[in-house]
Amino acid sequence: MKQYGFLGLGIMGTAMATNLVKGGYPVTVWNRSPGKTEELAAMGARVALSPAAVMAHCDITFAMLSDPAAARTVCFGDQGVLGAMTAGKGYVDFSTVDAATSLEIRTALIARGGRFLEAPVSGSKKPAEDGSLIILAAGDRSLYDEVLPCLEKLGKKILHLGAVGNGARMKIVVNLIMGGMMAALCEGLALGEKSQLNLVEILDVLDAGALGNPLFRLKGENIIADAYPAAFPLKHMQKDLRLAIDLGDELMQRLPCTAAVNELFKGARQAALGEEDFSSLFKTLRRP
Ligand code: NAP
């Protein structure tokens, strides 16, 4: 029976690995902080002690890691997946990273006879739990066809976008837009609040017209409750804005709004909001 691995059991990885286990796949997991494997182990997953041990045991290994540095460490680092890659095995990286990181990982794994797909996802904690993510895959077509049944346990819309790099760039574009939307929502609500308007009524007005959308609805609830449990940690939103700015620099594309939005999110990280949901940006704007 084909064996599957999962590296990185954070907010998204835990939910996604859980859906694979519930889908009947034999899954071996690893996480840098070992305590996070307990939930999956209780559901029947095997636990391995390193990325290399997962890769050695499995035919296909998935990863969901925080950023480019983490993706590189898990691939190239001590006991990383690269050392255990052999001909025919597959590696599918769901992490949101830049195209250069993805391409470097692909090149190294292919040199060992392996196959690689980048597959960043759109959708947050709840869609990950519900198996309704949007999966932006790119890379080895044979691997894509092979893992499609697994991806169908994780997502409601699954795309193959061509060569490695296109998935990373698509994800960066989508999150640039999302960061801007969140900044606009928070600024508008902060101004409304200062103007003695009712936040619930502002959100109600937005929802009734062309500006209504699930993001405002969902994150509006956080703002009204003044509670920001991390679904999408603010530090990752700022990382994605940084990746967008880097891509804009590389392509000489002006991103004036994104540059300003990035500064807002950097400010929020300086205010120690990095681990809270990215909607906690509101807290930095509503201050007197
Ligand atoms: P998270 O909860 O912060 O989890 C990050 C994972 O990366 C953890 O397993 C963490 O291990 C691991 N990690 C970090 N640095 C590492 C390193 N140097 N070596 C090995 N492992 C390392 O993040 P998340 O929300 O699940 O997001 C994961 C990725 O998906 C990010 O790229 C994010 O941008 C993207 N994403 C997130 C969402 C969302 O709504 N949350 C939605 C779409 C995409 P430890 O447990 O040891 O810290």
Describe the structure.
The structure is a single chain. This protein has 288 residues and is of the alpha/beta class. The chain has 2 domains: 4-163, 3-Layer(aba) Sandwich (Rossmann fold); 169-285, N-(1-d-carboxylethyl)-l-norvaline Dehydrogenase, domain 2. 54% of the residues lie in helices and 13% in strands. The chain has helices at 11-22, 38-42, 51-57, 68-76, 99-111, 125-130, 141-154, 166-194, 199-208, 214-225, 234-251, 256-270, 281-285; strands at 4-7, 27-30, 46-47, 60-63, 90-93, 115-118, 121-122, 133-139, 155-160. Strands 1, 2, 3, 4, 5, 6, 7, 8 and 9 form a 9-stranded mixed β-sheet that branches. The longest helix has 29 residues, at 166-194. The radius of gyration is 20 Å and the shape is globular. The mean pLDDT is 97. Bound molecules: NADP nicotinamide-adenine-dinucleotide phosphate. The site of NADP nicotinamide-adenine-dinucleotide phosphate has 26 residues, from α1 and α4.
Blueprint of the fold:
Blueprint: E1 4-7, H1 11-22, E2 27-30, H2 38-42, E3 46-47, H3 51-57, E4 60-63, H4 68-76, E5 90-93, H5 99-111, E6 115-118, E7 121-122, H6 125-130, E8 133-139, H7 141-154, E9 155-160, H8 166-194, H9 199-208, H10 214-225, H11 234-251, H12 256-270, H13 281-285
Parallel strand pairs: 1-2, 1-4, 2-3, 4-5, 5-6, 8-9
Antiparallel strand pairs: 6-8, 7-8
Helix pairs in contact: 8-11, 8-12, 9-10, 11-12
